[in-house]
Specification:
This is DNA-directed RNA polymerase III subunit RPC3. Component of the RNA polymerase III (Pol III) complex consisting of 17 subunits. It is found in: Nucleus. By secondary structure, the protein is mainly alpha-helical. It has 5 domains: 75 residues, Orthogonal Bundle (Arc Repressor Mutant, subunit A), CATH 1.10.10; 112 residues, Orthogonal Bundle (Arc Repressor Mutant, subunit A); 95 residues, Winged helix-like DNA-binding domain superfamily/Winged helix DNA-binding domain (Arc Repressor Mutant, subunit A); 52 residues, no CATH class; 101 residues, no CATH class. Helix content is 59%, strand content 8%. The chain has 21 helices and 11 strands. A 3-stranded antiparallel sheet has the order 1-3-2. The protein is globular, with a radius of gyration of 29 Å. About 1% of the residues have low confidence.
Length: 518
Amino acid sequence: MTQAEIKLCSLLLQEHFGEIVEKIGTYLIRTGTQPLRMIVNDTGLSLDQVKKALCVLIQHNLVTYQLQKRGFVEYEAQCKRVLRILRYPRYIYTAKTLYNDTGELIVEELLLNGKMTMSAVVRKVADRLTETMEDGKTMDYADVSSTFVRLADTHFVQRCPLVPEAAETPEVPPPPAPTLVISEKDMYAVPKLNLIGKGKRRRSCDEDENHEHKAKKHKKDREDAEPPPDDGIYWQVNIDRFHQHFRDQGIVSAVANRMDQTSSEIVRTMLRMSEVTTSSSAPYTQPLSSNEIFRSLPAGYNIVKQVLDQYLTLLADDPLEFVGKSGDSGGGMYTVSILSGFGSRCARIFRLLLRKKHLEQKQVEDFAMIPAKEAKDMLYKMLSENFVSLQEIPKTPDHAPSRTFYLYTVNILSSARMLLHRCYKSVANLIERRQYETKENKRLLEKSQRVEAILASMQATGAEDVQLQEIEEMITAPERQQLENLKRNVNKIDASENQVDETIFVLESFIESTLKKP
């Protein structure tokens, strides 16, 4: 665990959960697995604060616990999972792209709350969607449930492990910590719920006062009623499935850039056919026959079977091996390879070394067609930054420079790790910059929020335009310009965070796939 990763985890925890949770999370990341007593002693927080912070971290899968043989429980932070908080906006946007606003809000609610029952998610999302609709229109629970089922069917959400049912025996005391289990066949099984109802709008202050006694009565009735049919069945976002989707999109884009749109559509179809049957960590998709691929091509995509076979042959023969042939039955069996290779002047030299493996400086100059002085400067610069390495091969035992070959080479795995480390540092710097911008303009932001609240209240009571204009003029023209600049800067920082995270995802995927290669 590098210092850059620890710092970024600390910033993410503080930004999303506050100082106490950040202190506990960062302590566990730095020290590793620890029992409750040590966490309380070393952090200086009260036992109650530590317990509540651990509950929050466990709820969001950021900390795991394990019962030791000696009978006490130890807690361990999941640093990689904490870093995934950075990717939350991308998960939410992907859900919106695939499943519209309803899918977006379902994934957002699960990420915000860590774990929720399906019935709770459906009600909350229906209420939020109803708030955005025109007066008189509401969102039906059944429509939200349908989208939730689609997300489960495509494995974007999954059930959380449960405490296994066991016969109650008073002689045997319960363990200090439960062991949670779930079978693979139940992981995406949606309970049959008959959720009838529509989303509700939030009442205004006057309506709340008029209906206060009704709300209390309704709350009491709800407490007395039976628990929902899915009580105890919790759901969470399947982050690995989103990563699989990002990876598939990257493969499709790479095929389109290297070959053409038709080739990329064929690969997209193969990935879509095997998205649920192939593990996110598998090196290849499940084998698919040419006949199956042809039947599954998008409607209206007019290519004949013979042309499809020619495209599959071209893809299988390509040096990058996006597609591999694994058999001849069914017109030919094909798989998509997940472990595909990663391919200014410095970039030209770097690509050249990747292809040629080892080159002398003179060979680099000749192959890259770069003047000797420039090539020398670039090689030394990349050498000092650890992008390339220098290997000495002596002709004689005395290692005399005049009788030694000096070969430049690239350790791609080492370079990827170094770039990943720099990306973590970049994101941490961006977060700190956003916090600084917000802190510097705190007074103006608070004033703007007060004015917006007053305007919203006056609009709800039917105030005249003149009155509203007077309130708006409480913020002067220079202050409005300052707010616009702040908004623009924060938007740029947010966009930069997302762009850096896309690079982080590519580098992490490459490192993981390289380490899995035999």
